Amino acid sequence: MKRSDRKQLQVKTAGFAKLVEWSEEDGCFVGSAPPIIGRCCHGDDEATVYAELCRIVSEWIDVLEADGKALPPATADLAKYSGRFVLRVDPAVHRRLALKALAEGESLNTYCAKALAKA
Question: What domains are there in the chain, each with its CATH number?
Answer without folding.
Answer: 3-66 (3.30.160), 82-118 (no CATH)
